[in-house]
Amino acid sequence: MSADAPSQPDGPKPHINIFALPQQTTILSIMIVLVIFGVLLSISAGTSPVELWPVLVIIAILSVRGLVAKPEHDFHQYQLVPAGETFAPLQQRIHELCEEIQLTPVPQLLIAQKATSIATSGSLRRWYIFAGEAYATWMLENLQHPQRKMQVHAILLHELHHFQHGDNIRIGYVYALLRASYRVMLWALLFLMGWITLLIIVADTFLTLSPADLVADVEATIAAHGILGIDLPSDLLIAEADLQEMQQQIARTDYRLVLLYAITNTLGVFLVGLVLIALIWRKLLRIREYYADARVAHIQKTIQPLMFAHLSQQRSQDNDQSAIVSLQWLTHAQRRVWEQVPKPVCRLFVSQPAFKDRFARLRGPATIYDSGPRLALFIGIYGALLWFLLANTSLYHISDWPLHFLILTTYILISLGLIVQHVQGRHVRHEHLTITAITLLPHTILLGSVLCVLWVGLLFAPAMLADFLDAAIAVTARYAGIEQQGLSAAAAQSFVIEASIINLLQIPVMFGIIALAIWGQSQVTRRVLTWYSFPQAEHRLMRVITASIALMALVLALGVLPLVASIILPSQGDNMYSPLFWASVGGACVLGLAGGLWFRQQDQRYAQQCPCCKTPVPDTYAAGNTCPTCHCVLHPWLLVQYDTEGTR
Fold first, then answer.
1. At 634, phi and psi to the nearest 5?
2. What is the reported pTM?
3. Can you state the percent helix, strand and coil of the chain, rounding each to 5?
4. Residue 348 near residue 279 (C-beta atoms within 8 A)
C-alpha cells in the first residue's frame, strides 16, 4: 500500500468490494466438482467394496470434451451466424470496450436465429457474444442515442465481464461436468433397474448354484460340439478345493443385501445429481450475473444505465415463457413441452435473477455471500449430499478418507464463506455453533430416525423389533465379513453393537473438530485484516488468508484426524506403531509450527500500523476505518464507490 493512500472519500456511500474477496462463483464451482470427483476419489482411496475410479476417468474425459465442444454445441442449438457488416459498429464498440478494460482476445459478435436476448459462448480462447437479431438491432439503434448509449455500454460490459471473470471456463466446465455426470446418472438408474430385474429372475438359481454342476455343464457343451478330445490347459481347470470354497461363498451370499447395495448406490447417485442441478447449479448461474452487474457498476460508477437496460429486458421477457429459464438442458421437443408449463411453476426454475434482486445486490453487494443460518443451511445441504454418497459406498469410520474428506471440505467451505463477515467487521462467534451444528444435520436426522423406529417398535411390536434387530445385526456382520472369522452369533452381535456405538460417538467428535478449526481460522482472519501496512496488501492479504485455510486443512489431514482416529477407534490403535503414522503427525506439527512462527513475525511487523503515518491504530478492524492521526482510510481496496440512488 502506498504512503499516499487516500483519505476518507466523499460522495456516494462506499460498498464492500466483492472482487477483493474469494469469488463466490469459484466456491460454488468447487462444491460441485468436490461432490462429483471428490466422492469418487475419496472412496477409491478408502475402503470400498467396488472400484469406482473407472467412472471418474469416464466423467473426466466427457467433461473436458464437453467444454472444448461447447461453442459447436451453441452454434447448432442457437443457429449462430456472423454478424456481418450491418452490425459492424456494434463489433467496433465491443473492441473499444475490450481495450478499456484490457481484455484479450476480443469476442466476436454473432447473430442467433433462436435467441431473443444476449449471451456469451466459448471455451479457452474462442470467445463469442451472440444476440437475437431484434435485440442486436435495438442495441445498434440506441448506440447512436446520446442518452441510451450508456445502456448499450452497460449491457456489453456485463457480457465482457463474463470472459474477464473466467465464467466461460469455470462455469462452462461445470456445465460440461454436470452434463457428463447426468448421463452417467441416467446409466446408473438403468443399471439399477437391470439389477433388480436380474436378481428377481435368477435369485433362486443363484443361491443354489453348484460349481461342480457348472463344470459338468461346460464339459457336456464341449462334448456336444465334438471337441472333447482337446486337452484343456491346466490353468483353466478348477480344483476341487476351489470348487468347495466357491460353493461356501455362494451359500453365504444374501442376495437381498446385494439388492440393497445396488439400490443405495445407483439411486443415491442419481438423486444427488438432481439436487446438484436444482440447487447449486441454479445458484451458480444467478450469482455470476450479480458479479457481472457489480463490475459494470464499478466501471460506470453508477447502476442506473444497467438497471434501466435490465428493466426493459425483463419487460420483454415477461411475455416469453422460454426466456425466464436457462434451456441449455432441453431439446427442441422438451422446450415445446416447457412452454406449456404454467408460469408460476416455471419460475421455480428461473436461472436469471429478477430486476429487484439485481438492484438489491448492487445496493448491498456483500449479500451475494450467504450469511448466518443461510450459509449454515447451504453447507449442511452440501454435507448431506456428501454423507449420503459416502455412507452408502464406503465404511463409515473417521479413520477412512471418505469421512476425512467430509470434515476437511466442510471446514474449507465454511471458512471461505465467513471471510466476507470478517471483512465487514462483524463478530461471527455466534454463527460458528449454528454452522457446525447444521453441517451435522444428516447425522442428526439419521440418529433421530433410528431412535424413533426403535421406540415405536418397542412400544407396539417388541417381538417384531427383536427379529428386525437380529436380522440387521446378521446382515451387518455378513457385510463386514465377521462370519468368516468363525465367531459365534453372540460375538458377532457384540461386534456390531460396539461398532455402531463408536460410529455414533464420531458425531460429537466431528462437531468438535470442525468447530475448533473454524474458531481458530476466524481468529487468524480477524488478525490478518489488521495488517494495514502489509506490503501490496490489495494483492497479497487475501492470499495470506486463503493460504492459512489451506495450511489448517493440511494439519487436520496429516495430523489431527489420523491421531484422533487412532485414539477413539480400537481397530486403528496399531497405527501408533507405524513409522509412517508418526511421520505424518510430525509433518503436521512442523507445518503448523512454521506457519505459526511466520504469522507471529508478520503480525508484530504490520498489525495495527497506519500505512501512511506509521502510527499505531488501537481500534480493531472494521470496514471503512480511518487512522485517528492522519485520517487515512485503512484497506481502501476493500471498498468501492458507485451511485445507487435514483434507480427504483
1. -90, 125
2. 0.78
3. 70, 5, 25
4. no
